Structures are given as structure tokens and as C-alpha cells.
């Protein structure tokens, strides 16, 4: 057991992080298993379970619980297993086009427009030497 105050704090933090990480990993495993069970029975109706599992894996990566390479491997294996049973392979649906962002229209106040017009007019009217 550590004696130094900062080391004692680190032990407390490690316990909290470990408990949190175990919870995240458990939820990922549960969703992973749900897809595996669907594939094992051969009754795949929709890809909702697969999408939920992939989303959970991605969230675990963002939170730093799972390494990104192991997450990619898990997603790949899960998708291959799903595609072997499903009527329509995951990811073959046509991607929906993202909506184009509207260009922001910046309107200048009328006073500024008039001031800029006057400045340009005075510069042009000045005689050349």
C-alpha cells in the first residue's frame, strides 16, 4: 500500500477508472453477443443490433477503453458474421447524400455601405499631380 499522498490518490483514481471501464466493456460485450446470437440462429431481420454494437464499440474507443485496432478487428469480424447470414449485406445500402449547408449571408448595415461609397468617390475625384 502506498504511503505518499499522491500515490494514495492514484490508487483511488485507478479503482474508479477500472470500475468505469469494466462497465463500458460489459455493455460492449452484451451488444456484441446479441448480434452473435442473431447470427447463430440465422434469423436476421434488420441490422439494428449490428448498428448498436458498432456504435457501442466506437464509443468505447472514444472513451479510451478499447484500442482502436482491436475495435476495428471486432467490428470487422462482427460484420463478416452478419453478412454471411443476412439477405442484404451491411453497408450495401445507398448512402444518403448529406444536405448542403446554406451559405451564410452577411448583411452590412446601410450606414456602412453609404460610408464606403463616399470614401471611394472622394478618392476618385481627387486631382492627379
Can you tell me about this structure?
There is one protein chain. The chain is an all-alpha fold. The protein has one domain (1-91): Ribosomal protein S20 (Methane Monooxygenase Hydroxylase, Chain G, domain 1). It is built from 4 helices and no strands. The model has no long low-confidence stretch (mean pLDDT 84).
The low-confidence parts are: none
Percentage of β-strand residues: under 5%
Distance N terminus to C terminus?
A: 89 Å
Helix content: 55-70%
* Topology pattern, helix = H, strand = E: HHHH
Q: Which term fits the overall shape?
A: flat
Q: What count of domains describes the coordinates?
A: 1
Report the sheet with the most strands, covering strand number, pairing sense and barrel closure.
Answer: none
How many distinct beta strands?
Answer: 0
What is the typical, i.e. mean, pLDDT? 84
Quick one: CATH class? Mainly Alpha
Question: Counting H and I runs of at least 4 residues, what is the number of helices?
Answer: 4
Give a brief outline of the structure.
The protein has a single domain, classed as Up-down Bundle (Methane Monooxygenase Hydroxylase, Chain G, domain 1), CATH 1.20.58. 67% of the residues lie in helices and 0% in strands. The protein has helices at 5-41, 48-62, 68-85, 110-125.
Fill in the keyword field for this structure:
129 residues, Methane Monooxygenase Hydroxylase, Chain G, domain 1, flat, 67% helix
Amino acid at each position: 500500500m502506498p504511503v505518499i499522498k499522491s500515490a494514495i490518490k492514484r490508487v483511488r483514481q485507478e479503482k474508479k477508472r477500472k470500475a468505469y471501464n469494466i462497465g463500458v466493456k460489459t455493455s460492449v460485450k452484451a451488444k456484441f453477443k446479441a448480434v452473435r446470437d442473431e447470427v447463430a440462429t440465422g434469423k436476421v431481420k434488420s441490422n439494428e443490433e449490428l448498428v448498436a454494437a458498432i456504435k457501442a464499440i466506437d464509443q468505447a474507443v472514444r472513451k479510451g477503453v478499447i484500442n482502436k485496432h482491436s475495435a476495428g478487428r471486432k467490428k470487422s469480424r462482427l460484420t463478416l458474421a452478419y453478412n454471411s447470414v443476412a439477405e442484404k449485406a451491411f453497408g450495401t445500402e445507398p448512402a444518403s447524400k448529406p444536405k448542403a449547408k446554406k451559405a451564410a449571408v452577411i448583411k452590412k448595415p446601410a450606414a456602412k455601405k453609404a460610408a464606403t461609397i463616399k470614401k471611394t468617390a472622394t478618392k476618385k475625384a481627387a486631382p492627379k499631380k
